[in-house]
Write a structure and sequence with these properties.
The chain is α+β, with helices and mostly antiparallel strands. 34% of the residues lie in helices and 22% in strands. It contains ten helices and 17 strands. The longest helix has 22 residues. The protein is globular and about 70 Å long. The structure holds 2,5-anhydro-1,6-di-O-phosphono-D-mannitol (AHM) and magnesium ion (MG). The site of magnesium ion has 4 residues, from strand 5.
Length: 365
């Protein structure tokens, strides 16, 4: 009945038999037991997200057949044109989560302000998402995705905005869905990274990879190199080095322009994704709260790294909901390579600083 042999061969968990079929709901419920603070409501919340993503997948799959392609007349808080599918994805997530009792606050890339759904004491969780990441690609059939993150709502919550701006290390769960050649969902609750593939015949996300580990080093970098003239110097130097056969060498480049799809490839194959500061976006382009944080949580859980060039993404103290950040994420060794260039640059800057030169002179005279 279930043609699952090939699929289950990919499940690398010795505790399961090769024939077992595990849905995401089962997996979440099993994992919930390992979390002291999790309740049945938490699984119920996650299942709201998976339901929404199945609905979004069905729209994405029929794009071109139904009227979902193209832009709306609106621009969002980031000043970007809202695509029809952005709006559909946002509404779908809002509706799927709106009546889940434990959802206290929802914040989305598409909304200026967070929406408060439940009073403090009732809605225990804050959910944030980028409903359709990479949506400018959708008309060209390029993979897009949904990214989400869940925090506990602080009991002292006075204003929704203070509840949503928590540092990433406080995330209780994070994940994403890629609507690509197949629809996959990857999630973590701080207990490894697990991947599920949507079986369109049965309408269920089935476990296909468990405890994913990102390769320690990969040979691909992923960056919009068209902007490289406006990257800070250490990033430019890193890219020259990575291309040089005699040094980093043998790197190839892959850039889709949908963060979630670029990250997914790196999670499975290794390498590094970079979105440095540019002239146009001096703080970087990607959003800390619902793009960088969830992917950083997943990267670290899979043994990788994620930084803004100075510190772990998960330790950045946010100031605003829609704040942007530079992002360097992927295999540990590749991220360290980029950091080496940043560190060396800073050391040279410090050494060449006029005041430092004067003190050095005094010290040697
Ligand atoms: P979006 O969330 O509005 O789709 O924007 C974020 C996207 C990322 O998916 C992608 O990594 C990046 O923007 C691409 O930007 P650029 O076109 O500048 O390379
Ligand atoms: Mg996005």
């Amino acid at each position: 009945m279930f043609p699952t042999k090939a699929r289950m061969d990919m499940v690398d968990d010795n505790s399961r038999s090769a024939d077992s079929i595990v849905t995401i709901q089962q997996h979440i419920i099993e994992n919930q037991g390992r979390h002291p603070t999790a309740t049945g409501q938490f699984s119920w919340l996650l299942s709201g997200i998976t339901l929404a993503c199945k609905i979004i997948a069905s729209y994405v799959r029929r794009a071109g057949l139904i009227d979902v392609l193209g832009a709306t007349d609106e621009t969002n808080v980031q000043g970007e044109v809202v695509q029809k599918l952005d709006q559909i994805a946002n509404d779908t997530l809002m509706k799927a989560l709106g009546y889940r009792e434990d959802v206290g606050i929802i914040a989305s890339e598409e909304d200026n302000e967070p929406r408060v759904l439940q009073e403090v004491g009732r809605g225990r969780y804050v959910v944030m998402f980028d409903p359709l990441d990479g949506s400018s690609n959708i008309d060209a059939n390029v993979p897009v995705g949904t990214i989400f993150t869940i925090f506990q709502r602080p009991e002292w919550d006075r204003q929704a905005v203070y509840s949503v701006i928590q540092p990433g290390y406080q995330q209780v769960a994070a994940g994403y869905v890629v609507y690509g050649s197949s629809t996959v969902m990857v999630y973590t609750t701080g207990n490894g990274v697990h991947m599920f593939t949507l079986d369109p015949q049965f309408g269920a996300f089935l476990l296909t990879r468990q405890n994913i580990q990102i390769p320690q080093r990969g040979n691909q970098y992923s960056v919009n190199e068209a902007y490289s003239h406006s990257f800070p110097e250490p990033y430019q130097k890193y890219l020259s080095w990575a291309k040089d056969q005699d040094n980093g060498g043998r790197c190839s480049s892959r850039y889709i322009g949908s963060l979630v799809a670029d990250f997914h490839r790196i999670l499975l194959k290794g390498g590094v994704f970079l979105y440095p500061p540019t002239d146009k976006n001096p703080e970087g382009k990607l959003r800390l709260m619902y793009e960088a944080n969830p992917l950083a949580f997943i990267a670290e859980q899979a043994g990788g790294m994620a930084t803004d060039g100075r510190q772990r993404i998960l330790e950045v103290q946010p100031r605003t909901l829609h704040q942007r950040t530079p992002l360097i994420i992927g295999s540990r060794d590749n991220v360290e390579d980029v950091h080496r260039f940043i560190r060396e640059h800073e050391e040279t800057q410090r050494a060449n600083h006029p005041r430092r030169r004067a003190t050095d002179k005094l010290a040697t005279s």
